[in-house]
Specification:
The protein has a single domain, classed as L-arginine/glycine Amidinotransferase, Chain A (5-stranded Propeller). The chain is built from 6 helices and 17 strands. The strands form 6 sheets. Strands 2-1-17 form a 3-stranded mixed beta sheet, with helices on one face.
């Protein structure tokens, strides 16, 4: 049975994303070989990540529903050249207790991204999970704000799942860019038994790129404690230096938004961490010699399990982005 109430109870089952080569043909010819190489390397890394999780006793599911990601998609209001491949299930699915929620992504090319996981979700539903979906958005011109610092208007409910982090009956929601007020209101109306905390304006975009709840009383972040909701007043802050990942991100070439997230300013992969349990988490290979980070983990009795994700900075996606835990406890 699906069951997720926090980010740190023993991880038992997880969905891990995958890449597709379909869209490569739509890229400029001088970029295709580079992207194909990156995708092949990432395929290999995902296999290693899967085997690493399985060695930790975690069951791993992968998207199986067949879709052609190079096909043009169209609604009465707009057209898109193709679909985003299903690398990042956390961006679009929110698992709260034994309920799966398909959220409403703000990008048109992600409109049908849920379909890649249909076989998995049907099986969860057959086994007793609740399965909800936010209202399908129009994503017409009225859904976007001319002020690029806001990006989305408040015309219709919009909310990407990675804008939310939960902790035992509490949902913390970033309300900048990847969600709007109506999206947060939909969450409140749909989950009345949960307390919804809106994060401050410093938390732009996906919340898992800003912070990670390691265990009760300990939260990893680069933000100051006073920027967090009062809920965390008595918690200890594990202040993580993000400079290593920031410097790598600065070197990346942006090729196409159907492949990459371009918001490096608000994405810090150092805090994008997936916990196996309260004292063990997945950490990227490029931090193996980062004594400043590892010493902080050791001091807090956190054991890192290293994984390869060589092009995480190219995609601007981290380990929580490419995974979605479905059973903890």
């Amino acid at each position: 049975m699906i069951n997720v109430n926090n980010t740190y109870s023993q991880l038992k089952e997880v969905i891990l994303g995958k890449v597709s080569f379909d869209f490569v043909k739509h890229l400029p010819e001088n970029k295709q070989a580079k992207v194909e190489y990156i995708l092949k390397q990432t395929e290999e890394d995902l296999e290693v990540i899967q085997s690493t999780l399985e060695k930790e006793g975690v069951k791993v599911l992968r998207p199986t529903t067949e879709i052609q990601y190079d096909k043009e998609i169209q609604t009465p209001l707009w057209k898109e050249l193709g679909l985003r491949y299903p690398l990042t299930p956390r961006d679009i699915f929110l698992v709260v207790g034994n309920t799966i929620i398909e959220t409403s992504p703000i990008s048109r090319f992600r409109y049908f991204e849920h379909w890649a996981y249909k076989d998995i979700m049907i099986e969860y539903f057959k086994n007793g999970a609740n399965w909800l979906s936010m209202p399908k958005p129009l994503l017409g011109d009225q859904s976007y704000d001319v002020d690029e610092t806001v990006y989305t208007s408040n015309y219709e409910p919009l909310l990407e799942a990675a804008s939310v982090i939960q902790h035992d009956g509490n949902l913390f929601v970033s309300t900048q860019v990847t969600s709007n007020k109506l999206g947060v209101q939909w969450l409140k109306n749909t989950l009345p038994n949960y307390t919804i905390h809106e994060m401050g304006k410093q938390f732009v975009g996906h919340l898992d790129a800003h912070t990670c709840i390691i265990r009760p009383g300990l939260i990893a972040t680069y933000h100051k404690k006073e920027e967090f909701p009062a809920y965390f007043n008595d918690w200890e802050i594990l202040d993580l230096d993000t400079s290593v990942d920031t410097n790598i991100s600065k070197e990346q070439e942006f090729i196409h938004d159907n492949l990459q997230d371009d918001d490096h300013a608000n994405t810090h992969l150092t805090v994008n961490l997936l916990s196996i349990n309260e004292n063990k988490l997945l950490l990227y290979d490029h931090h193996k010699e980062n004594r400043k980070l590892l010493d902080k983990f050791e001091k807090n009795e956190i054991e890192p399990v290293f994984i390869p994700f060589k092009y995480s900075h190219f995609f601007n996606q981290g380990i929580t982005c490419i995974t979605l835990e479905t059973i903890r406890g």
